[in-house]
Amino acid sequence: MLPVTSKKCSQNPGLCPLRKGQNIAVLVPNEVIPGEPTHLFLRVPRPLPRAMIRVGGVYAKNHVSLWPAEMVEIALSPEITTELAKLPQAT
Hints:
- The chain has one domain (2-86).
- By secondary structure, it is mostly beta strands.
- The protein is elongated.
- The mean pLDDT is 85.
- The chain is 10% helix and 40% strand.
């Protein structure tokens, strides 16, 4: 499991910061704008034969294999970024 969680959004009005979770080496961008479509890019620190990428409990996707050299792109719809902003805090 590769979770990406959102921090409390009240620190920066209009921006929802993200925090990389377990087994994520790189996460870009570090913040999303609620209601705007966003693309997340991430890398894993070591090869993973099977993985599930979760974003704040509002998005999840299974992957068969992930490699450190591979940049994984996740497209988040405006609805998902709005739901991320509603989360109370990071878990």
